[in-house]
Amino acid sequence: MEAPHHQAPAGVLKITVNSPAQMGELGRRLAKILRPGDLVMLTGELGAGKTTLTRGLGEGLGVRGAVTSPTFVIARVHPPLGAGPALVHVDAYRLGGGLDEMEDLDLDVSLPESVIVVEWGDGKVEELSDDRLHVVIDRATGDTTDEVREVTLTGLGQRWADADLASLAA
Question: Which DSSP symbol is given to 80?
Answer without folding.
Answer: B
